[in-house]
Design a protein that fits this description.
The structure is a homodimer.
Chain A lengths: L2 E4 L5 H12 L4 E4 L11 H6 L7 E4 L2 E4 L1 H11 L12 H34 L6 H22 L12 H4 L2 H9 L5 H4 L2 H11 L2 H8 L1
Helix pairs in contact in A: 1-3, 1-10, 4-5, 4-7, 5-9
């Protein structure tokens, strides 16, 4: 059964799912959703995803959304296939979950603000809110300072193994470094930079960017 | 081994953890953290939780923070003890994870804004931002409309079984109904209201409120 992934391959949350599918060696096909045409707000799409955001997967009888729920599902269901993304014990997984929550609750909000304001607002003809950008950078900096301390003690966020916690940071950190000129926030932090060099050069992530 | 829970029992994220510990029949002791005295920003606390927020648990050698990571840990580790909070299959858990993510990413931000503005800003001597309150209520209303549709088809969010997804909504919905006078947002939605009546009357939640 080939997994159907609804959503453009360039969308950040879709990329989170695709990086996981490549690591888990799971076959998939992309079902295009044209965000510029508003197809994610069409009635047919809303039947799959009532909040009107990408991605959604269909896998046999299972329809599932929320990118971080989808990656957990494949990491658990195919634990022994491809790269193990959850660690080897229940305690390992607990720490993976801790950093996955930190990504969703602490890292994501300020980096999302920066990407939205600097990359997308100009494209939409909206003025950049410089105060929001300044606050976003300050808040993201505080989070990255904690990451720097953590990554001085372990190679990856959850320990000495690559996991969903690291993977989940790929899409938005890619924007930060490549698209909005804030790469110094990574490069100026030695251990965060080494971590980023490692995870962003993984073959599975390169395949995502090549799509 | 008794689980140590650092954080005042009245804090919303601590309550999320305590509700889970009661459901899983796990012994715990509260280690008080006086938020008004700023004890969550003390160096000793920051060694346990670098972001300076409650709760943190200590369980033998494991120190863990992020309330939604902690509840996942206990639900998985003690799957067959107390109430099963993850469903019976990997697919059940996937749907639990979906709604747990919806809680964290869609439900929490607007309800947090409402509670912060209406309950805490006056206590801190800060003026209420009426525009933020209006937007928070609009956004929460849209989320609850989707819940209403979902709960017209299944008794609980992830299906016909109570799970972490429902449990995670308890602390802030309690504020909404009890402390900030917005209970009509629940009562005016028939299925959301039936769900709330059910989950808020569970013995484990009543024990949390009694602490």
């Amino acid at each position: 059964m080939v997994v159907k992934v609804h959503g453009p391959a360039y969308a950040s949350a879709t990329r989170r799912v695709l990086a996981c599918l490549f690591d888990k060696e799971i076959e998939f096909e992309i079902v295009p959703v044209d965000l510029l045409k508003g197809e994610h707000k069409n009635p047919d799409f809303l039947k799959l995803q009532p909040f009107g955001v990408v991605p959604v997967i269909q896998d046999g009888d299972l329809t599932l959304y929320e990118s971080r729920a989808i990656i957990r599902y494949y990491a658990e269901k195919y634990k022994s296939q491809g790269v193990d993304l959850l660690g080897t014990s229940v305690e390992d997984r607990a720490v993976v979950e801790q950093w996955l929550e930190v990504e969703g609750q602490n890292f994501h909000p300020p980096i999302y603000t920066l990407v939205l304001q600097i990359l997308y607002y100009p494209k939409l003809g909206l003025p950049i809110d410089e105060k929001a950008v300044k606050e976003g950078e300050e808040n993201l900096g505080k989070v990255l300072d904690i990451y720097e301390e953590r990554l001085s003690k372990s190679k990856y966020l959850a320990g000495d193994f690559y996991s969903l916690a690291d993977l989940s940071h790929l899409p938005f950190t890619h924007y930060l470094v490549t698209d909005i000129g804030k790469g110094y926030m990574i490069k100026d932090r030695k251990h965060v930079n080494a971590w980023w060099e490692d995870i962003s050069n993984r073959p599975s992530w390169k395949k995502v960017l090549d799509l």
